Amino acid sequence: MYQHLLVPIDGSALSDAMVEQAITFARSLNARVTFFHARPDFGASSDGALLEAMAPDAFSVAARGNSNGITSRAEAASFAAGVSASSLIKTSDHPERTILAAAKELGCDLIFMASHGHRGLKGVLHGSVTRKVLQDTTLPVLVAQVESNLRADDETRAIAVIKREHRSLAAVIRGLQHLIAEAHRVEAHPDFALLDAMLLYIERFPETLHHPKEDRYLFAALRERTEVCDAVLEELEHQHKLGASYLSDIHAALNLCKSGINGSIARLSVEVEKFAQMQWQHMKSEEEQVLPAARQYLLPSDWAAMAQAFEANKDPRFDADTDAAFKQLFSRLMNLAESAAQG
């Protein structure tokens, strides 16, 4: 059967749903996945050409966009499921060409993709990228998701928000692990500015946006409808508070690194790994125990309240400007992490 899937993604809700399907499919085959993203050629536009000439650094940031964030979230989801995954990003205004070229270059034996076309085969063939891939490919193509078939009910939308935030947080934690592991390997100081920015995100994002969604909406609604999850919810809420202690230990180790204390990188690596393992288990419990229970016990009115609060920023804790700022910070961190990895 198939051993290496190429999965084109674009960061849309359709793409997020398809990523989960691709991971499940790959796991059933013990296959590996390469997530592929084609970002627009910003430099080919008049605005891009002008910005490149006037402010090269700003152009570099704009040209990257959120591409690394999109692929990092997908890789984080794959990591959580135990599926081997990597990513490839290409700049192109003809994604169908780069999809086929990437599949050939990487030796993939299946292209697993979605279509923004309409319902049914005829509609799929009207999706320009999908249609062109199907026309020109010599590889099998599995169109696993069509946008018009994507569920858009309150339950699906609320859960998608929670999972997307899990993936963003997991991607930053994985970036933190990689940065420290590489510094430990080469016996050099890590990029302290990048480490500080990552820790700032890890500290503030959950407390400002993510945990309130869980504690005040999801967990509260579950407690109102059933008692079967009480023990799990108590443990998860305890872990929300315990995270601050783990981060304090990380900061203490990081300060030793900044002071040049011998062996401090090893200690920092241990503290980060402890925190990461706790987070992986925490998110796994939420997704494998709490969310299935919520699907079983919560009422449509519960999901409607959550979806409205999460997406429309009805709750003042989920201010739109704050949400946008964290999304921008996430994209910036993933771009910086890529630059650090490339040296």
TrEMBL record:
Segments forming domain Hemerythrin-like: 158-294
Record CDD domains: Hr-like (cd12108), USP-like (cd00293)
One Pfam family cited in the UniProt record for this chain: Hemerythrin
Domain of life, source organism: Bacteria
Residues in UspA domain copies: 1-144
Family in the record: Belongs to the universal stress protein A family.
Full protein name: Universal stress protein
UniProt organism field: Marinobacterium lacunae
